[in-house]
Design a protein that fits this description.
Layout: E1 2-3, E2 19-21, H1 32-43, H2 47-55, H3 59-69, H4 81-92, E3 97-104, H5 105-115, E4 120-124, H6 133-142, E5 148-151, H7 157-160, E6 165-169, H8 173-180, E7 184-189
Parallel strand pairs: 1-4, 2-3, 2-5, 3-4, 5-6, 6-7
Length: 193
């Protein structure tokens, strides 16, 4: 597994685009940053105030500090099992899989290492908050021949604008329809109610 900046994408595998997978709400049920903030608040009565101070320096900075102060525990996360099973199938076909998230790089790399399927990780780092159109632009630059993106929320429309295909996960049908206006919908994983 490589960091996103170091990843050199090979050509698409016979018309199958590389697949970038979102983390929060897509690969896992929940939010890595929210869980870290909760752990920080429980560990110290001043944790909340520290988080506010970090947020004043920007989202990416706050995410990095949270990842350091309240490290992610990948083995304790609630993974989206149907999606994870499908990703394993995709990997056996030789499809390139990358984790692309607005969460901090430390947390993303720990999760990617735990899952063991991803060829690279693209994540927030330093002053860059990798969300929405910023994530789409990075993926389009790395995969100039096109890519598919698995996401779950309105912010992912900013990525699907750049993508060739959408995998809509754990989202309302209205989001799948909006994604279909931007690119082909390869697959829909319905909400697990």
């Amino acid at each position: 597994m490589t960091q996103g900046q170091e990843f050199a994408a090979p050509p698409a595998n016979q018309g199958v685009w590389p697949l970038a997978v979102d983390l929060d709400g897509t690969l896992i049920h929940g939010d890595v940053v929210a869980a870290a903030a909760w752990r920080l608040a429980l560990a110290s009565p001043f944790g909340f105030f520290r988080l506010v101070r970090w947020l004043l320096r920007g989202r990416a900075y706050a995410k990095a500090r949270l990842a350091r102060e309240a490290p992610c525990e990948p083995e304790r996360l609630a993974y989206n099992r149907p999606l994870l099973d499908w990703l394993r199938e995709q990997k056996t076909t030789g499809r390139i899989l990358v984790l692309a998230t607005a969460s901090d790089r430390r947390a993303a790399e720990a999760i990617a290492a735990h899952v063991g399927l991803f060829d690279a990780v693209f994540a927030s780092e330093g002053a860059q908050n990798l969300k929405g159109p910023a994530k789409g632009a990075v993926l389009a630059r790395v995969f100039p021949g096109g890519f598919a993106y698995a996401g779950n929320e309105t912010a992912d429309l900013g990525v699907w604008r750049y993508a060739r295909a959408a995998i809509v996960v754990n989202a309302p049908q209205s989001l799948a329809r909006r994604a279909a206006r931007l690119c082909a919908v390869e697959r829909v994983f319905p909400r697990a109610d």
